[in-house]
Amino acid sequence: MRSAHIRFTFDLWRRVVWLACALLATVVGSASAQPTRQSLPVGSVHSGVLPLGTAQLPLPAGQWTVAGVGQQGVTVPAIGAYGTIQNTILFQIKNNRIVAVLEANANSIPVNDGWGRTKSCAAGGQPHLLTRYKSGWETGCQFVVVTAFGSASSGPAAWDRARAFAEQKSLTMADTWITAGFRASDRQDLIDARFHFDPTLFSGAPVPPGLDWSAEAVKADPQRDAAMRATAEWAKGYDLLIERGLRNQLGRSTGARPVPMPHIAAYTQSNPTIDAKLAELDRMFRDGRLNQDSYLAQSKLVLSEAPVVTPPTNLLSNAVRKNISFRSFGTFVDYAIAYVVTANNAISTGIALTINSTDSFWFVLNDQYWDDYYARLNTHDSERIIDFIYIGGGVKA
Asked: What is the pLDDT of residue 19?
C-alpha cells in the first residue's frame, strides 16, 4: 500500500513538472516570436544593419560605434500615443577622427494616423531634394544639404552623451558636414535618419575653416559641387534600403554586402538599389525559388532599372495647361455664338477675347482651389510637419 502511494505521488509530481516545463516553453516561444527591442550600449560596434526598435537601419560600409542613446518627445496630440522617440547617435572613426555621424530617430509604439514630413522634405528651395512618394499615410523622401555643427554644438540628449564619448576617446571632428537625410514613414511607424559625412572624405584634404558653403559658392567650386552630387546620387538609391528597414525586411545579404560610403560609391558606380536587387535574386536562385532562365532575365533587367522618383507637383502649371487646352476650342465656340447674335465680325471677336481672358483667370483659380482642396482631404497627414531635435540645427545651404 505504501509503495503504491509513493508511486502515485511520484507520478503526480512528474506530471506537474512536465506541465510547468511545457508552459514555460510556450511562454518563451511566444515571447521570442515577437519583435524585441534590442539595447544599444554606448561603445558597441555595428556594421551592415543596425537594430532600431522593431525596425532596422542599413549602415554604409565600415564600423559604426554607438556614441550616445536617448529619447525624444513630440508635442503633436494628433499623432496619438507613440511612447517615446528612440534617438541614437553613431560615429564612424578613422585615425581618431570622426569622419561620419549618424543620428537616427524611430518611434517606440505604432500610431494610427501617420507621421507626416520633416521641414527638410517640405522645403522647395533645396537643389538636392527628392520626394519618392507622398500618399495619404506614407512619405518617402531624401535630401542632401550642408550642415554646421562641431564638438561644442547643442543637440538632443543623445548628442550630449556622444560629445562626452568623443571627449573621453580624444576624438576630433569637422565643423561642416555634407548631410544625407531620409524620412520614411507609413501609417504606423517612421525612421528619420541623417548621415553626416566629413567633406574631407571627398577631397582628401582638410577643409579650410570658415569656407563659404552657400549654394552659389558650392556650385562655383567643381570639387565641392561634385561631392554634393555624388552624395545625392548615393542617397537616391539608399532610401530604398531605409524603407525596407522600416518594414524589418533587411536580410543577411544586406549585412553581408554593405553599401559603400558615398565617396567610394562615386568611383565604383555602385547603385544601392541595383546591388540590393541583384543580391536578392542571387539568394533566391541559390535557394531554388528562381529557375535559371528567370534568374538571368531578371538580372539583366535590373541593370537597366532606375529609381522612380516623383517630383513635387505644381498645381498652378497643371491648371494653366488644362486652361490652354480648354480655351483653344472654347474661344471658337464663343466667337461663333457671338457672331450668330451680332452678325458683326469685330464685335464677335471682342466678345470671344473678353470671355477668353476673364474665364481663363477664374478657371485657373477655381481649378487650383479644388485640386488643392481634394489633395488635402486625401493626404491630410502628409502636410503634417513632425521634426525632432537635431544636432546643431544649422543648415548652411
From this structure: 54
Contact 383, 376 (CB under 8 A): yes
Q: Using alpha carbons only, how large is the chain's radius of gyration in Å?
A: 29
- pTM of the prediction? 0.69
Query: Pick the residue with more confidence: 26 or 212?
Result: 212
pLDDT score recorded for residue 34: 38
Indicate the domain borders of the chain: 45-310, 315-380
- Whether 363 and 384 have beta carbons less than 8 Å apart is answered as no
User: Is residue 264 packed enough to be buried (19+ CB in 10 Å), middle (13-18) or exposed (0-12)?
Assistant: middle
Give the start-end residues of each E strand in 138-198: 139-148, 172-173, 176-185, 190-197
Over the stretch 3-40, which tens digit does the pLDDT of each residue have?
Answer: 554 454 545 455 544 555 545 444 444 333 334 445 68
- CA dihedral of residues 72, 75, 79, 85 (deg, nearest 10): 0
Q: SS3 string of 242-293?
A: HHHHHCCCCCHHHHHCCCCCHHHHHHHCCCHHHHHHHHHHHHHHHCCCCCHH
Q: Residue 90 — φ and ψ, nearest 5°?
A: -125, 150
